[in-house]
Amino acid sequence: MTKIEIELIAHATEDLDKVVEAARAILPPGARDKVKFKVKELRGHYGNPIRLVKTRIRDRELAQAVFDHVISGLPEEDKWELLRDLKRRTSGGSLYIRLDKQWAFMGQLKLSSSDPIWIKVSFSSSKIDEIREALKGGRPGP
């Protein structure tokens, strides 16, 4: 794996600190101080203020640790859903995962498509079998 990108939206009605805390909660404890999130001010469809919270993890070892932590923290039924829908969740050597922001804030990982934490995991190979092996716990080659 070459990098991980994490993005989520902080709506005007949400506390930015809590949204960032939810993002940090998906990271392994040892990585939480190493990963820095940037906040970009945007305007929503109706002119409402929203903030895009994002980070890129380019260090391969740290990216692998984050990926392993996220996958191992998912409930078994969510892991199976990722594997079952793998073709739909991959493109050009990247795996797309959406996690529930509210559950993450409470310290639990769960797939969700509503107001999620978006994770893009970029692999050095676009072979779906290698991505599948990474999800099952095997690591793809360089």
CATH class: Alpha Beta
Please state how the strands of the largest beta sheet are arranged side by side: 2-3-1-6-5-4
Write the CATH homologous superfamily.
Answer: Ribosomal protein L5
Proportion of beta-strand residues: 25-35%
Residues in helix, %: 25-40%
Structural class: alpha+beta
Global morphology: globular
The figure for the number of domains is: 1
Walk me through what this model shows:
The chain has helices spanning 16-25, 60-73, 76-84, 86-89, 101-105, 128-136; strands at 3-11, 38-43, 49-57, 90-91, 94-100, 116-122. The protein has 6 helices and 6 strands; from the N terminus they run βαββαααββαβα. The relative contact order is 0.21. The protein has a single domain (3-136), classed as Ribosomal protein L5 (50s Ribosomal Protein L5, Chain: A, 2-Layer Sandwich), CATH 3.30.1440.10. Strand 4 (90-91) and strand 5 form a beta hairpin. Helix content is 36%, strand content 28%. By secondary structure, it is of the alpha+beta class. The model has no long low-confidence stretch (mean pLDDT 92). The protein has a 6-stranded antiparallel sheet.
